[in-house]
Automatic annotation (TrEMBL):
Organism encoding this protein: Diacronema lutheri (Unicellular marine alga)
GO molecular function: glycosyltransferase activity
Stored InterPro entries: Nucl-diP-sugar_transferase, RRA1/2/3
Lineage: Eukaryota, Haptista, Haptophyta, Pavlovophyceae, Pavlovales
Protein name in the entry: Nucleotide-diphospho-sugar transferase domain-containing protein
Domain Nucleotide-diphospho-sugar transferase span(s) in chain numbering: 6-191
């Protein structure tokens, strides 16, 4: 992060050892000891804790670029953000169709001829390891929903994150109303883009 000249950052440490590691390297560090549902310490259990911590930043009006520890920065990422939505997130897609969405056209059903062609939209998952949150009521509501789900459900945080971003409000689901932008996959690239296409 320092090598990429990122000036506005803080390491959120979940334990004393990580906090000491950061402080020994003059990294701004926030020690926040929280426990995952069931006390688990595997990567999925620990990853779900981020939503609880992000609520704290959003509540005081601080927009946040969340980055898991396995993200590498080559340049300051803030210069590539649009900041025009509640959530701006990295995609697991590797081209325009997979990252930004693509219409899928099916053949007409003879029994339902009045429908014409069936159409659906296919979009690859957003990665819950890198996303930017504006300090808005909607982004806060999303983090509250995610924190609640992580505390009460046995669900992978990335699955729940995508469900909340993509599922519209309906009689069986109340969405939180976030607006979403997909980060440019050429700037915020996942390992598929890095190792298969570059």
């Amino acid at each position: 992060v320092k090598a990429a000249a990122v000036r506005a950052f803080v390491l959120v440490a979940l334990d004393d050892e990580t906090a000491e590691f950061g402080r020994a390297r003059a990294v701004p560090t926030y020690l926040r000891k929280v426990t995952a549902r069931g006390g688990g310490t595997d990567n999925h259990a620990t990853s779900g804790l981020k939503f609880r911590i992000l609520k704290e930043f959003l509540t005081v009006g601080c927009s946040v670029l969340l980055s898991d520890v396995d993200i590498i920065y080559m340049a300051d990422p803030f210069q590539f953000l649009y900041r025009d939505t509640d959530v701006e997130g990295m995609s697991d897609g590797w081209d325009d169709a997979t990252a930004y969405g693509d219409a899928q056209y099916g053949t007409a059903d003879a029994q339902l001829h009045w429908l014409g062609e069936h159409t659906s939209v296919r979009v690859f998952a957003r990665n819950s390891g890198l996303f930017y949150l504006q300090a808005t009521h909607e982004a806060l509501a999303l983090m509250e929903r995610m924190a609640s789900r992580m505390a009460s459900e046995a669900v992978w945080d990335q699955s729940a994150y995508n469900q909340e971003l993509f599922r519209p409000s309906s009689p069986v689901h109340a969405g939180v109303g976030t607006t979403v932008r997909v980060m440019r996959y050429e700037c915020f690239l996942n390992t598929k883009v890095l190792f298969r296409f570059l």
